[in-house]
Amino acid sequence: MRETTSTQKLLFLVVAVVTAAFSIFSAVLMTEPGQSLNLPRSWVITYFQYRWFFIAINFCLLAYLWYLHIILSIWSKFWMSLASIGVIICIIAANFLLTAFFPSYQYDADYVSITEADKILSDNDVIYAVEINGEVRGYPREHLEVPHIAGDNIGGKDVVMTFCALSNLPVVIEQDIGFGQSDLGILIQTHNNLVMVDRNSGELIQQITRTPEFSEAEVVSHPNTMTTWKSFKELYPQATVFIYEFNRVVDSLLLALFEGPMEKQFSNEHGAIFPTLDMDDNRLPPKEQVWGFDLGNTQAAFTRAFAQKNPIYRFELEGQPLVLVYDEKHDIVNLFDGALNNTLADFESIDFRGTTEIGQLNQLPMHNGVFWMVWSHWYPSTQVFN
Known about the structure:
Number of strands: 25
Strand content: 25-35%
Helix content: 25-40%
Keywords: Membrane, Transmembrane, Transmembrane helix
Shape: elongated
Pfam families: DUF3179
Largest sheet: 5 strands, mixed
Distance between the termini: 80 Å
Structural class: alpha+beta
Protein name: DUF3179 domain-containing protein
Organism: Photobacterium chitinilyticum
Strand order of the largest sheet: 1-13-3-2-12
InterPro entries: DUF3179 (IPR021516)
């Protein structure tokens, strides 16, 4: 048998190192460690866009390594098998792991009655109400933290509630994001905010901006109302409530794994758990929860203290009349179009639903309770009402 030369051994070693490095880097880039290292968002998008090409490269490198192993008799089959398992694990981690850990409930979400939900939820639990054409669904924050995505037909509209725990942000969008029926799932988070993938079209959507990555498609948003379970069940007795059962073995692992980091994310004594945010904007404390409004070219952030001092606040952005309403009893902040039938609404009283003595104002989507550090990163030119 021909003896392996030092050059051949070096070639094998180089291919082995390149294969391992490529596999590990892909897995790190497309999972949370990549955000811990503050790897650029553009790298994440590029990897996803050409993921099948990169997967093919990974397998070609592994196949070439096996070829060298066979003809040069370097390494045992045990070590080659171990290396192959490592490469496959990295490929799965980079491309399929988060989807398995955090399954989307866009089409098979479970909803229960107020009575049933009351056996599960506590009065102080945060919940997001979505009301469309008189029909209401409730989405408890705790029950969105694992699936992140829960859909339904509400009032004749196919919509999906999306939630990012790192941003503390619920966003409701229509299921058709411009390509017909979508199949939304989790890709990753960048800059402490969720990136979703439509597995039907291949489109990516940054949750906080609702902006498609590869097209000019328009994502339609719907408003939601943030309150407590105690208020929700009083205000919406006929509603149904999304409940995630936490019945998988991995759910207990995920809750235990993320409990500590999420406590830090909500704590004023710690910064963001992923160091990917521009923290220079000190107009508000980083962890202050704000109600953000995006009008396209102009954004505004409202603090709870501002809403409490101005329970009915009329103002304009880009010439559009708006009304901010605060309900003290239920601690609700909502925003409404200040025009009724294309005329400036002149009313004496208004409730958190937008009901006035002259008619019903149209509620507008807001980013309810989002962390200031996240909002100001994505919208650095935002106005602040504090």
